[in-house]
Every structure is written in C-alpha cells, then in structure tokens.
Design brief:
The structure is a homodimer.
Chain A lengths: L20 E4 L6 E2 L6 E2 L3 H10 L3 E5 L7 H11 L8 E2 L1 H11 L4 E4 L18 E4 L8 H12 L6 E3 L5 E4 L2 E4 L1 H12 L4 E2 L5 H10 L7 E5 L2 H10 L3 E5 L18 E3 L2 H11 L1
Helix pairs in contact in A: 1-8, 4-5
C-alpha cells in the first residue's frame, strides 16, 4: 500500500517540514511480541541502521515495564538491533526520577521482571503507589494494600506507567495495568498520573534527551491513541505504522488523525531518506 | 440529637404524607458488622417488632452477596431479629431471575459464601459475567477470564450486585466489587448493569413484593448515596440514620439531600408510630 497524505511530487505531507529527530515505538514497530519471544518486523533492523547512518537523532519510546532497559536491549539484540540502554526511554526510570525529586517512598505494584529499575530506593513506610503491568502481582491482598495506603494519604499519589487496557501474550490477551489503575482511582477517588505514553512529559523528556524540539520531530508507532495521539498533543508529528496492533478501523479513529500512514518502519525510513 | 426537618407540631416533614410501607437497609441500620460477627444497634430489634405489630409492610433491602438469604436470616436471628428469607431483598436472587429471563449463562466473579443463590444454573460456556464482592476470588486469572469473555461477546453483559467502593471488616477496609467492576468496564469498554442498590429496578421490585407504591414508602438507610439517593431517584422518601457508615459530613453531601435524618432506626419508628 502507498503511504498516504502525499504531495504532488510524491513527498508525504508529514515530510513537508524538515525533521531532525525521531521517536520510535518498539513493540509493534521493531518486532511483534509473542509467547516464544516474538519475531522481528521485516526491514526494521536495516531501517534503524540507515537512520543512524544518515545522522538522525533517534530515541526509542516504550511503555515496557516488565523488564529493565538492559534486558530489553538484550532481547532486541537477538533480533539484530544494536541499541544502547541510554537510547531507550521507558516509564520506570522516569517514575524513579519523579519519586526522588518529590521525596516519595513507593509501594510498587509492578511485574517482578521490572523491579530492578527501582533498586536501592527506600521502600519503608511507603507514601505513594506506582502501578504497572503487574500481571499475577495483582492479588486482592496487594490491591487492598495499595488502596489503604492511598485512602489514608492526605495527598494521595498514584503513578501509573501507562494506561493500556490489555495486551497480547502469545495466543492470550492479558489485562494491562490500566484497568487496575481505574479500580484504584474509583476506590480512593484519586486521579493517577500517567508517567509513560501518552503523557506529554514523557515524549518531551525523550526529545530533551536528544536535543530536538517537538516541531522538528516525528513519532512513529502502532498505537493510534497512545503513540500517535499522545505525540500530536505535544506538537510532535505522529505517523501510524500498519504493523503491530494496527487495525484497519484505526484509519477512521473518531478523535486521532495521524499526520501520515506507512506500511511499516522500513517504508517510513525510505521516505525520510528520499524526501527530507 | 433531634430528628431534623420538623414541622411546627413536631411532625417530621418526611411524615407529612402518610406511609404504608418501609424498605430497611440491614447492615448499619439493624446491626454493625465486625470481624467477630458484629453487634446489634440498640433498639433495632424492638423497632422492627413494633413496625410489624402496627401492620406496616416491611422489606429488608441489602446488597449483601457474600452469603445466602437463609444464612443472613440466621445471622440476624442471633441478634434477636425474627425475619424470613422472603422478607429480604438481595441482589443475587434478582440477578438469577434476570439471567433466566434473558437465557444467560453466567461466569460468577463472586464470594464463595454467596454462590448457593445460583445453584442449579447452567454455567457451561458462559456468555455473561456477574460480579460482586468476590474478595480473594479477584485473582488475575479470574479477572482475565471475565475480561476475555466480555471482549469476545458481540453483546457483552456485565451484571454487578452493587457499586460499593469498599467496606469495613473488623479493623480492616477491604475493596468491594465496585473497583473491579470499573476495571472490567474500562478494559472491555462496556457499562455494567447494577442489579442491587442504588438501581431503581431494585427498589421498585422490593416495593412490588409488598404491594406498596413508591409515594407511600420510605427507605431508611445509612448510605447517603446508595440507600437515600437511590430511593429518592425513584420517588421513594429517603431517610438517613446516624448509625453504621454515617459520617457527619454526609449532612452536607453535594448532591443528595435526605427527606429526613434520624439518630437510629428506633427513633424513626417512634416518629412513625406517633405521627403517621
């Protein structure tokens, strides 16, 4: 399929203004997850290499919170991606920074695989809750613990890594942290602060890391709301790939209109290298 | 404290129009629950007996879903109340009736103590979810099962016994079914049908059972929103007791204004017997 939103010379409208940096989603753009570990999306390894070789500043924006950045780099290396942990922008390190700045001691309602991102913090007498894709850790006992902590706080703080509804793990759909965040919000009459996508602070911090301003950047992702809509809300062009969780009905989304569509990351990069 | 909303002759304004029947909440009006089983609220046993002796039609409206009506009758008998299961109006039997009318096979996300109310139903290949105060049954595995069932339904049906946020059990606060209902609503983009209080259908069915019309009835309860507001929304006078979960700030509730306040059930009944 052709990239949409083309100008008469073949230049996509999202490339009319020059871009200097890119934010790339990982799952659904670089690879598709599955029970056995997943598979690379064809052309993505080469696309990332071509971007870097051409001098573009790139940051990888993910809401992954079930492993550390180091583990994610190793996982991606198995598919052929040569990334550094510092090129990854993930919610847990951002949450950690927020907690330290505000002198907060977290109760972590998180997946065990991602806990190492909070290593060395003070967990005694917690005074806030950090919630993520905790899976089996969402026991009634732990939910009650988080609920009581928030209910008894004068100034309750609930940080959420994201607000995803569910995700696919192999042949199964699993509840993400979003529904459990809604449960705690309702129980304690609090509003969670989203740390990861689609929070504007998250995208802007990623761009700060590569010294690119929003109007000079493009976010490429498969999630119409979290990736594309989130980026657009803070002045970053949002381009939707037709890989990962993309579904044809996304092209008629009631509120989010991407700046452009591409079949996959490889096509996006070819267009950038040709027209930018 | 005096009953509020008094007319000049001492008659409370909620007794200006004659009443024929009463809906009484149980927990917080007849007794206060606690870890050891709870304790009777002084004067309540005699108040119920006086009402019945005076010929009033009475139905007991509860969102209790963690035991059967028979078990609740036995529990109340230990406090001195002589009630029959048919005098209790509880959400599980209402849910059962709804399921049968609509030919639905439920996945029950309920407390084991209340399952007997659904005995003999068809649970094979469930096509809807009934959710209540399931406590430890709110495992990640069971929540995922309910979520997938709803997500895969063309016409998803989620019945909730109530929408309580939490309740006290002894010295502990425990999450009620409401937060978990919100979690499933968010995950599957569905709206739950509340079966128990504050649903209008619940109050009206209780009155139908005693052949009393809403304008001839009073609901007496300790929950400003679920008992008082719910009853008022379907034309039943709502009277708030200052027992159970009542808190002084309830008297300044932003949206619900009770038709009257009483210190406890005994005072309400004395006023009824004197002025009605």
């Amino acid at each position: 399929m052709a990239a949409t939103g083309e100008e008469t010379d073949g230049r996509p409208s999202w490339l009319v203004r020059k871009i200097r940096g890119l934010l790339l989603d990982i799952s659904g753009v670089l690879y598709n997850g599955s029970e056995g570990g997943g598979e690379v999306i064809p052309g993505s390894v080469e696309a990332v290499e071509k971007l870097k070789a051409a001098g573009y500043k790139v940051q990888f924006c993910t809401n992954e919170d079930q492993c550390t950045r180091e583990q994610l780099v190793h996982k991606l290396a198995r598919f052929g991606f040569k990334l550094l942990p510092t090129e990854l922008h993930a919610p847990s390190p951002v949450a950690r920074k927020l907690l330290q700045e505000r002198n907060l001691r977290p109760l972590l309602l998180m997946h065990p695989g991602g806990l190492a991102e909070f290593e060395g913090m003070d967990f005694l007498n917690p005074n806030c809750v950090v919630i993520g894709g905790a899976e089996d850790q969402f026991t009634y006992e732990r939910m009650n613990k988080a609920f009581r902590l928030l209910l008894n706080s004068d100034n309750p703080v609930l940080l959420a890594t994201g607000c995803g509804r569910y995700y696919r793990s192999g042949s199964n759909l699993l509840l993400d942290g979003g529904p459990y965040t809604k449960a705690l919000e309702f129980a304690c009459d609090v509003k969670a602060e989203i740390v990861g996508k689609p929070a504007a602070t998250f995208f802007l911090a990623a761009l700060e890391g590569i010294h690119v301003s929003p109007e000079d950047a493009v976010m490429i992702g498969d999630d119409i709301v979290s990736d594309v809509g989130g980026a657009q809300a803070c002045g970053i062009r949002g381009v939707q790939v037709r890989t990962g969780k993309f579904r044809p009905e996304d092209e008629n989304h009631p509120t989010v209109k991407p700046d452009g569509y591409v079949d996959n990351l490889a096509q996006a990069v070819d267009l950038i290298l040709k027209y930018n």
